[in-house]
Design brief:
With about 100 residues, the protein is of the alpha+beta class. The chain has one domain: Ribonuclease Z/Hydroxyacylglutathione hydrolase-like (Metallo-beta-lactamase, Chain A).
Length: about 100
């Protein structure tokens, strides 16, 4: 899926997941799938808002790369409470070595 420019300089770069069996390990989603909504702000400062799941990290990176170089991000904003869904070592390395704590 391609990024969708919602407003000038603001993109939806989310990922649709139709492979995960259970969401949060509890809810059956195999038939419906789930959308991980991530947003990219490409302005004087560059930010990604939410990162999705570990299972879709590479697809998210491709979405971001189609707009900017991920290493140029100034901010990573995490709105999720569950860090297992919000972070992955591979993704942190590709985001310029930043760590999510």
């Amino acid at each position: 899926m391609q990024p969708i420019e919602m407003f000038p300089g603001m993109f939806w770069v989310g990922v649709n997941d139709r492979c995960t069996e259970l969401f949060e390990g509890l809810w059956q989603i195999r038939d419906e799938g789930i959308s991980y909504n991530s947003y990219l702000i490409n302005d004087q400062k560059k930010a990604i808002i939410d990162l999705g799941s570990k299972a879709t990290a590479l697809e998210l990176l491709e979405q971001i790369r189609s707009v900017i170089d991920p290493a140029g991000l100034d901010y990573i904003v995490i709105c999720l409470l569950y860090t297992s869904d919000a972070a992955d070592d591979l993704l942190c390395v590709d985001l310029g070595g930043r760590r999510i704590i």
